[in-house]
Design brief:
This protein is of the alpha/beta class. It contains 3 helices and 25 strands.
Length: 228
């Protein structure tokens, strides 16, 4: 085989990515015979050896495959685990790939980092920076002048209005709406923080906090939070 491509993580999101992968291969490898590209899951727990007709390999077995080039992306929703996998993969010869599937709009002045995955229906507006190994899920809208830092997970159906900064490894729940900031005072979601499903965020979120509701508040009842 000339090339191998591993989807790290064989859970629900990994299976969704794998189901779409064939549509992205011609763009990823336009000069290659696609029949010579070996595609597999990588999963360290390896509860199955085959899922939906796709081989599941341990990371060790993936790296031992004989090939001219190894490629991978990480389809693990938990951002902490995703970052740990990335740090391990840095020590290997495998190269990260970025997956931008059909029906995704990325305006030409926006930037998408290595290893990120943009699912169908995602819309990335102007002057947006998406970091490395970010998940932008189905039917999500990221408006102008937003910064999505490394390892962020944005769930399906999120509306992130303009001038928002989402810190590293934050998690945004499905169907949430994030109110617009301004160029001088962007809306801030701190690193490692979580915004619950269907929340309406009109304030800032400090680092490593969990907010939810309409309007979204600290669900642990921190009355001293002055971040907004």
């Amino acid at each position: 085989m000339k090339k191998v491509l591993g989807i790290y993580g064989a859970g629900g999101f990994g299976c969704e990515v794998m189901a779409l992968l064939s549509s992205a291969l011609p763009t990823l490898f336009p000069k290659d015979d696609l029949s010579e590209i070996f595609v597999c899951f990588i999963d360290d727990e390896k509860n199955n050896t085959n899922i939906n007709g796709v081989d599941v390999l341990s990371a060790t077995d993936f790296h031992l495959l004989e090939s001219s080039e190894h490629f991978y992306t990480i389809a693990i929703s938990d951002s902490t685990s995703r970052k740990l996998v990335f740090e391990r993969m840095l020590k290997s010869r495998a190269k990260p790939i970025t997956l931008v599937f059909d029906d995704v709009l990325v305006m030409k002045d926006s930037k998408i980092g290595n290893g990120s995955i943009l699912m169908p229906g995602a819309k990335i507006s102007s002057s947006v920076i998406v970091g490395e190994f970010v998940h932008i899920n189905f039917n999500t809208y990221i408006a102008h002048d937003c910064v999505i830092e490394n390892f962020v997970t944005v769930s399906p159906g999120v509306i992130c209005c303009g001038n928002v900064i989402i810190g590293e490894s934050a998690f945004i729940g499905a169907g949430s709406v994030i109110k617009q900031g301004t160029p001088n005072k962007p809306r801030l979601i701190g690193a490692g923080s979580k915004l619950g499903i269907a929340s309406n965020l009109i304030s800032n979120i400090p680092i490593n906090q969990t907010y939810a509701g309409n309007p979204a508040r600290n669900i642990y009842g921190d009355q001293n939070d002055k971040s907004s």
